[in-house]
Amino acid sequence: xxxxxxxxxWCLGFPEYVAYHDEEWGKPVWDDQTHFEFLVLxxxxxxxxxxxxxxxxxxxxxxxxxxxxxxxxxxxESYVQExxxxxxxIRNGMKIRAAINNAQRFMEVQKEFGTFAAYIWGFVGGKPxxxxxxxxxxxxATSPESDALAKDLKKRGFKFLGSTTIYAHMQxxxxxxxxxxxxxxxxxxxxx
Length: 192
What we know:
Elements: H1 15-23, H2 32-45, H3 50-55, H4 57-63, H5 69-72, H6 77-83, H7 93-113, H8 116-121, E1 129-130, H9 144-155, H10 163-172, E2 176-177, H11 184-190
Parallel strand pairs: 1-2
Helix pairs in contact: 2-7, 2-10, 9-10
């Protein structure tokens, strides 16, 4: 990027990464469909790079009904077989079936809590955790909150959502602000 804004160094690989960092990562999300989108994408990432998933994001959007969990919850096995040939997504049957299962569990959480967002934000007391990471600090992979949330999700039947994946979800959806303190987005995200 030529604008000289100070950014978290992880995002400097390619333009889509920079745009994701500048416009989405760390911004608090209260919308259930967006939470579901990130749960699908982050569970697909397991064992892969986020860059790989970002490059396939449109393919996932197309294949997973624009991340409409109500539609995904009803995907039949015949569509799973079709998805296994779709080059626009990660063609892993366990991950695809996990997304369908998670859509079903997602709606169960909504019935209990009103919204998935209300449920997930409860694990951080309803407001973002503001970390103060500086250059050279190790980036957390998990936290007590992600451990507790992942454990609860597993108990509720969610799949492919361990503590590391859930911590990434928390970072992406603004439950935790892990922008470096010298990144221009750190203070912007604090003010949402």
